[in-house]
Amino acid sequence: MAESTNSKPILLEVKNLKKFFPIQKGFFKRVVGQVRAVDDVSFFINEGETLGLVGESGCGKTTTARCILRAVDPSAGEILFLKGSGERVDIATLSEEEMRLLRGEIQMIFQDPYASLNPRHNIFDIVGEPLFVIQQMTNRAERQARVAELLELVGLRPEYMQRFPHAFSGGQRQRIVIARALALNPRLIVADEPVSALDVSVQAQVLNLMLDLQRKLGLTYLFVAHDLSVVKHISDRVVVMYVGKIVEMSPTDELYYQPLHPYTEALMEAVPVADPRIRSAMTELEGDVPSPANPPSGCYFHPRCKYAIDICSKKSPELLEPRPNHFVSCHRAHELQLTGIGDP
Fold it and tell me: Is the pTM of this model over 0.85?
């Protein structure tokens, strides 16, 4: 699977990533089970591209992102990252000090711009903190010049740097979060639902800003989201997760117009399409997402799948490549004709 889809090198490669959380009971905290939040996930991101990571709440996409950032330690697997020096390192095995040095190359944009900014710090302190802590930029005038440059880069006026977060709207706060993420000139930005807390009109402005910054600075994004219309707008390729596993991965247009997995087809119902004929042809996905602590046998999606046959409940499907650069985990992918969001 680790083949670059273009001439650019692979910046991040995740191999067989697992993250299990123990279930403890009783006074002695005896382990009685495990929550399989991320279960054998593999994908790659080429330098300069945007990979969308989508799925319903609880599918493991945020836990995957946190493992990549080492906000939580993975249970197993490799997370290979190509540093600016050309050295490839396994993030999963790095020490705390090694991760601290790597923070400049991997940054995160959080979901809630209200919760991710310290209300007691002004914008100069917030955006300039990584410069002081990581880059040891102790000269205040140098930090002020760099913060002013970053604020202009995200469309804010430099004189705002003495204001506090409460003086800004949600969209402006998210621009401040983006400015802070860019302070150390990162190569990879993990964006965890970066526009889901914003109004729709503001979402478009922030997404266009992220695309503009990607062109200017050569950024690479891992874009975690549940809104498929947002993912379609910004992503080059999309990974679809379900109960901790990858069920489909392909270039964006091919996934949306010609899905190969029944779960992906069901997700397309959430994409607004200005054609009532397309919408009326779709049916609602029934049932609930299984618990990752007690997933069903075989294919995890089979209890909700209208195409399920006997083998689906007995054998877990492998992630195969029936089309070039289009991977799917479904026993019937070769025979089903699924509906996307319309004609390409």
Answer: yes
